[in-house]
Amino acid sequence: MDTLRDAVPPVPLTNLAGLAEGSVDEKTATGAATTVDISALTDQVKQQSAFLDDVFAEVAKVVVGQREMVERVVIGLLTGGHCLIEGVPGLAKTLMVKSLAQTLNATFSRIQFTPDLLPADITGTIIYNMHTGQFTQKRGPLFANLVLADEVNRAPAKVQSALLEAMQERQVTIGDSTQPLPDPFLVLATQNPIEQEGTFPLPEAQLDRFMLLIKVSYPSAADERAMLDKMSSLEVPKPREVATIDQVRAARRVVGSIYIDDRVRDYIVHIVQATRKPRDYGLAELAPLIEYGASPRATLCLAAAARAHAFIRHRAYVTPDDIKAIAHDVMRHRVVVTYEAEAEEVASEDVVRRIFEYLPVP
After folding, report:
1. 51-252: which CATH topology?
2. Which of 205, 252, 217 is CA-nearest to residue 81?
3. DSSP code, position 256
4. 27-50: b or e for each residue (b if 16 or more CB lie within 10 Å)?
């Protein structure tokens, strides 16, 4: 368990060699079936992603530090992948989501999950009007572009199921009619890792529905001092509207066209496969530590998140650095460790980290 074995993985990985940051042809890149004009795509990406710099700058006026958390949420917004944010209270999770919604002029709802919450409280219900003698629909707080599900693990299973169904189907059934949710629709669920008494933890099958599990840590001393200076003044900073939902929709279409080289695609597949069959990759010491490997959804989410990560950096192609930067957020809740790993204080993040240390980088 101290070091990884030096044996060469039996799975051939020859197609993962030789791809560096600057090795993509800036003119064309030939994939399995198509030829991509990287220069034209780069111009399009720079044009469509320019508004994100203003968005990050406005959110930074209110939320000091926590750039990584803001980026991860924007990645979820650009790919349509929901996010689970884990951190202790007071780390600006709610403030960040609300500020992001203000910069995009997006509708925002906050739901405080409690043990007595009912599914109709979040989806909506039918109300009888005594004056007209008719039933009318009342939409719940899920009908918003950005929905903050605060302390999602405090609600009972039936409410969590209603939320997860809306996340997957992008629609809600109220009575006998089905209503589509707004586009874009993003759920940002939070949970407190230090208070588990009276909670209903999300099972692994439901955790897999979230594209990213974002862990938020305490700010640095410099960031906390800057936060103190900003928030203790008479005029608390407020974010301005600098972009629109239409720009987000247009950006989503461009994100889906960002180029991923075949070697990077193979790299993604091998990462996920190594969590299921570590012995095939020369990582036999990890086999007793992994109960269940990452699902195929991890492969799709890793590729989509890497594309969005490159888009935020105004790049038209994905590099291995994009994969490494976002992999822990995609994989940490999808790799289930055994009791033996828990006894040795080995977390799923440690398993993912060892896989990245061992697999050759394209």
Report:
1. Rossmann fold (3.40.50)
2. 252
3. T
4. eebeeeeeebbbeebbebbeebbe
